[in-house]
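Section 3.1: Structural characterization of target chains.
Under the original work plan, the team committed to producing a structural model for every single-chain target entering the pipeline before any wet-lab resources were allocated. The record below documents one such target. The sequence was received from the expression subgroup and is listed exactly as submitted; it comprises 534 residues.
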Amino acid sequence: MVSGAERVTRVLAWLAIAGIAAAILIMIGASLVRSSWMLPPMDMPAAGPPWGLQTVHVPAAMVTLALWLSAILGGGSVAAGLLAVQRGARPSLRLLFAVAVVAVAALVVLPPVGSTDALDYATYGRIMALGHSPYVMTPYHLRVTQNAFARSVPAKWENQVSVYGPLATTEQFLAAKLGGASPARIVFWLKLWNAIAFGIVAVVADRLLRSNPAMRMRAHLLWTVNPLLLWSLLAAGHLDLLAAAAGLLGLMTLGEQPGTARADRYGTALAGQSAIPLTRQPRPQLLRPGLVRVLAAGALLGVAADIKINYVLFGLGAAWVLRRSPAALAAAAGGALAVVVPTYAWFGLPAVRALFSRRDADNFYELFFYPHQVWRPQIAVMAAVLVVGVAGLLLRRMPPGTAGRTAIRPALALSVAWLFFWPYQLPWYETMSICLLVLYPATQLDWLVLARLTASTTANMPGNAWFPRASQLAVINHDNMVVMAPMVLLAAGVCVVALCWSRRWKPSQPGVPPPRADGGPFEPLQSTTAGGVP
């Protein structure tokens, strides 16, 4: 007989599956009818990919409301799934993989939505394909000289040179060579490579966690079928995915350290047969891998930072665990510099200046200073102090990570401090924390990251829609962006400091898993041994 607790667990799991599927379908539908609601217009090639319904008109207001619903539904469904997994539910991995494959394939072959950044990438790639430097020539010049691009160059950034790393520019150049003079075709290639990177992270997480069903399922909920990530990274086509995949592979290349105390998901370390409380956790052994492995790891971390400079934090996480081995630290730095130095040397000083041209956007500091732009320098100083302080606090107070993946914990601590407190808080930036979080034991940090991602995704939806600026939807959209979302971001920042102070990282204990029904999508909880705890 099924108990009340088991019934609740099954309901949560079913709600998670249904809500995730519904959110993804809404996002696919919005992508299909992009031409009827999103700016700038984009001429589609005569023969795809990408494909879209050019003749179907859907009011922008309807799309906006549907997308807001999809974001809330997506975040809530992932939360329900995480709760169900904590209580012992195990949704079918085949079902999750099928949903993910369909979603990724559909979003890749549809036009970009939710952000104009992918069109910026296409523009910078086209500039380089024409023999110019995107760090010197602005998209405005392409607008007046290339008719095929004139309509699709985003007006907001038409006077802004590229702020991305040299390897990102190289990727954009390759896409432009393959896509020719079609912005839509160039974006398709960019999204295709994003999909490959997305799949790499999913496969790495699945293989590393295959002996721990609970963590494996949690990883796929946070990453593989997370509608919020699918929207920001695949539907919108942001290049953060490439940096995340390279950075994660770099940290994994460092390898496992034998003899490290094994940490379970509730904040204790399992050494032999005894459980050691977190407050008396012995100092973990530091990584001492071979120099060839360290060189390769450093090179991959250099690739990540060469795509987006904020991924240098992954390199600092690796340096933290190598700090007592000068030879290994030097080898890792040498591998990274072997990637970064030649590419920046090739593009010259304009590419270096791009590192310092980023601006603040969508942050909780706007609650106190918006719209007084004169306070922006003060915000940067305040944020830098907070980032450094919280990073130190997290490095001291976060629970031990999973045995053998020593570099994940410091990289996650540095990334969380930067994401939560630096004044550039956009949903696709959360990629750098989530790709690490899936390999880190479940804590209350899961809920903070998910809340931030839900709030910032909703605030950035629908993304350059053309509903009337004086409409009620425009007012709600503005208030959401400058008040409601920043309040959630501020609350998350306060909560992460409170977690460090209280050390109450432990999530609720999982319950008894529901029995598998014939043909149902749930599997019983499997016991684990050295691979981890359920």
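The mean pLDDT is 85.
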